[in-house]
Design a protein that fits this description.
The structure is a homodimer of 342-residue chains. Chain A is α/β, with parallel strands linked by helices. Chain A has helices at 15-22, 26-33, 41-53, 60-67, 85-98, 112-124, 170-183, 199-214, 230-243, 255-267, 285-290, 302-317, and strands at residues 72-77, 102-107, 129-133, 151-154, 164-168, 189-192, 249-252, 277-281, 296-299, 324-328, 331-333.
Chain lengths: 342, 342
DNA sequence: AAACGAACCGAAAAGGCTTTCAGAGACGCT
DNA sequence: AGCGTCTCTGAAAGCCTTTTCGGTTCGTTT
């Protein structure tokens, strides 16, 4: 039943086309299509049919001009490459897409100038709000208070506490990770993690330490900061085993580190998880499921962060402003690399 | 020098605000700011200063309504999760961002219904064009010929040859991969790759076979199709070594497979690259640089694909329509896992 | 029969911008 | 002085939709 001649490449139908075809005025056509009550049912039907025949889609641009709200938001990422931005972005896109909001994507490539440029461009397009997604949890410069639209920061909080930021709770993440290891009966727990220049690394270590203290324990040695790489995981494990051969769990700052740790443990003849339990961080599927055994990991619920940011922005557009840093809980995803001591 | 009272949260300045402040009409103000020639230099200067004082940014929505072109495009991905979409998206965003085009991001989550919904929404916003990004290189259903704006398909080509699609040249990729191994003096080359349901897997195998044939050689055994996982890489390697212990190179269908291959090779006492050279596919940094040794891999130049798609769309909006499937060359990134036989 | 609501419809304005066209000065020429 | 020519400027139309408000038609009430 293909239509012989669709509307095709000519100008899309406008409301006045519909009105003409239905034999009413544009005003009536508008009311009919928008469910306004001052239209006779029969007339409304005629208009709807006309609209369908012309496959009329109301021009959101015109609508936006009139309403003062465009139904668009800007999503400003600092680097798409980083794998943390993507899930957040997905969550936000998802939360908005369900409504009638469209998302402009802008990647600043970590450059402040480019970021400014994008902000200007987005404001020129009269977005109703902005979400700023960072690639690390360290605070970042605020876009300022003088913007004409609300802004929500996701993952990387703003350094201005008047702004609203949504971040994962990395201290809590450290706690629940250790809690899981304790629940598995482990007591000699080491922590190998990434670059100490990252707040995430320091906070996770802090949380881990606090959970251990609550149980009357301490970490085996100090937290071993280094790099977010497999290489560091391997190197640190070698040292760890030399110093503390009796360790029975290693909490790692990332899944990459964890893979390095597991490799060296196996090479040195330690069984995972029987002798040593290993936990990662980030719950990055490629790494967790490919490792032997599959890796227990902490998931930061980044999609959730994205959705929460979208939701917060939505309510802020509605007028309800919040501020401060709100942190969302993380969760432990249990796989084969951790198990109770038998 | 902070301004005491910025434009802040009040309505952004409009052109008529600027005109009033400069003491001219909106028409003149418009011409002055847009570089039209029919304005005295002195008047223009006055207008520009007024615009600056009010930090005036022209309303792109109004401009779009008038011009009939909005300076926006829709970027329709089928799944953001997949790692192939991201670089393409970055490339496209980059190519457009440099100009004055803004990108609407929509993720269909692999659902045709949702895709349709997004297309409708985007057309309602009067995007000037559409880029459809797929997650595998197998052809996908066309959006149809009746759309009012040009469409370019990236990575996953349309099944309608009247559409324009930009894809990586996977056959060529298989060729250059084998060429590199041949250049390293390898002659007993095996191919372990992923799911044969993927066109990419079949095409790469085809290209590899062709390059070998050109050299008067054949693969060691047949291409070993399986899954895109480390696990399959390990399993296939075990079988391969049993059947052909003299193999001197393994071309893998993905970096994940390659990591599995390398692991088993090492465990069985084969040195990489001295005894066996190993190549991956996709050039996925996390995997290539973390493996021991770092992995030589074929990069599909996906950012390039994204940029090319953006560029093609741009010219199509300008009126120059192309059609068919255009494939872009891949490149070999050489790291430690391949080296000349000494 | 006159008046009154209710129900329905359409003209017009608004939103911010660009462009066209006509008008206003300024200037030089005959 | 009168005329044509430039150079600037501004009024107004147009883009597409929504909303307000005034007008018309009916049926109902006194």
């Amino acid at each position: 039943m293909a239509q012989a001649t669709g509307p095709s490449r000519s100008h899309p139908a406008t409301l006045s086309d519909v009105a003409r075809l239905a034999g009413v005025s544009v005003a009536t056509a508008s009311k009919a299509l928008n469910g306004r009550s001052q239209v006779r049912a029969e007339t409304r039907q005629r208009v709807i049919e006309a609209a369908e025949r012309l496959s009329f889609r109301p021009n959101q641009v015109a609508r936006g001009l009139l309403a003062g709200r465009t139904g668009t938001v800007g999503l400003l990422t600092s680097d798409l490459e980083g794998r943390f931005s993507i899930p957040i972005l997905m969550g936000a896109e998802d939360a908005f897409g369900a409504g009638e909001v469209a998302v402009f994507l802008c990647d600043a490539r970590g450059d402040a100038i480019r970021e400014q440029h994008h902000v200007r461009a987005l404001l020129g397009r009269r977005v109703d709000g902005l979400i700023v997604v960072g690639s690390r949890t360290d605070p970042r410069p605020s876009l300022g208070r003088e913007l004409p639209v609300p802004v929500v920061y996701a993952y990387a909080p703003s350094d201005d506490t008047e702004d609203l930021s949504i971040v994962p709770d990395n201290v809590g993440a450290g706690r629940i990770a250790v809690d899981h290891l304790l629940a598995c009966g482990r007591t000699r727990i080491a922590h190998i993690t990434g670059d100490p220049g990252y707040l995430a690394a320091r906070e996770r270590a802090e949380g881990a330490g606090a959970a251990l203290a609550d149980a009357g324990l301490t970490l085996v040695g100090r937290p071993r900061f280094g790099a977010w790489s497999e290489g560091w995981g391997r190197a640190a494990t070698a040292i760890l085993l030399d110093q503390h051969p009796d360790v029975d769990a290693v909490l790692c700052g990332s899944d990459q580190i964890a893979r390095g740790v597991i490799d060296v443990l196996r090479e040195r003849g330690h069984r995972v998880p029987e002798d040593v339990a290993v936990m990662g961080f980030d719950n990055w599927r490629v790494l967790t499921s490919a490792s032997r055994p599959p890796l227990t990991s902490v998931d930061m619920n980044l999609e959730q962060v994205g959705r929460a940011a979208a939701h917060a922005l939505f309510t802020a557009i509605g007028g309800a402003r919040r501020s401060g840093v709100e942190s969302l809980p993380c969760r432990v995803v249990i796989r084969g690399s951790t198990a109770p001591l038998s």
